[in-house]
Design goal:
Blueprint (H helix, E strand, L loop, with lengths): L12 H31 L3 H4 L1 H46 L3 H30 L3 H27 L5 H4 L2 H13 L6 H8 L10 H32 L3 H4 L2 H19 L5 H21 L3 H15 L2 H11 L5 H30 L1 H4 L2 H17 L1
Helix pairs in contact: 1-3, 1-4, 1-5, 1-7, 3-4, 3-7, 3-15, 4-5, 4-15, 5-11, 5-14, 9-11, 9-13, 9-14, 9-15, 9-17, 11-13, 12-13, 12-17, 14-15
Length: 385
Amino acid sequence: MAAIAPVRLTRDRATWLIYLQLGVFATYLYGLSAALPLLRIDRGLSQAVAGLHGTSMAVGGILTGLALPWLTRKIGRRAVTWTGLAGMNAGVLLVMLGDALPVTLLGYGIASGMGSITLYTGMAALDDHHGPAGAAAISEANAVGVTIGIGASFVISFAAQGVLGWRTALLMTPVLTALLALTMGRVWTPERESTAVRVGPEGKARFSGAFYVAGGVLFCCVALEFCFNLWAAKLVADQTGLSAAMAATGLTAFTAGLAAGRFAGARLALRMAPTTLFVGALALTAAGWAVFWLSEEPVLSYAGLAASGLGASLHFPMALSRVLAASGGRADQATAVASVFSSLAVGAGPFLLGALGDAFGTHQAFLMVPALIGLAIGGILAGSR
């Protein structure tokens, strides 16, 4: 096993601010994801029409990703993260208060687009602020987000069974945003770092081929994760005979694996060579997928999903770190491009798997997962050379 000299991760107030901003972001992401089936029932929408909300999220992420370099140059990273949170909350409130389909589609798109600029700007700031420990900080930030996001999905579910209804639970996002702004609104990374980024190389310079290979790996990893998020419950139901409602709990096993793996991965990233760790994480996801794909027993299916989530926990942080490392010091431009790659993956990956499922069945369609893993490993090895 390849190893590197241990690197120390120091969690100062600026680090915790970005961690908590990502936690607030997670309440939107997991909250609106949990709310979508409830919204579909309330409005009597077909699955295809309800799925347009995911398309709207992808479009929102692409548009704001294209605008992110300009926005960062104009107002700086600190203002971008708070502007993104403000816009994200506006989108969430549109979904909460809106009843017509165009309004909820717009709400999902705005929340996704504005939330993504907070996510990617925060990741770039962490990477710059922590230097060699940047990958560990990014992994740990995502661990905090996933952990808070699990709680958000339970809040939506609990509220849906009560008198006030699921829409009221969406207020948790603006309430947490306001609390964070009041308590840590003046905190940010040292000015010398953010200034150095803003006056760095011109954003118009071309990125290298290695950068786009890293972007392709990021695309594969995000597409893979969202395929599990949106279609794993369907395969559990098909394979085990569980009801759709019971099979949906399988996603909790995958998400729990994500949370546990990101906390552990933050420590591994300080001690292991990045390529070794990344390929190992993809191999673990492939092993978990094999158990999940072959199993007809609920317990084994859940175990396979948990192992898949454990491996997938490192995919996004490690892939984003590789994009940043290949950017030639242009972290803000790189994260903007990464946002576009990720948004395209969110829109294309689950859609393609669903289309394959309609044509050949969900079981056969899930062969797309090892194909994405193989492409990602190939991209990692090519980029390493």
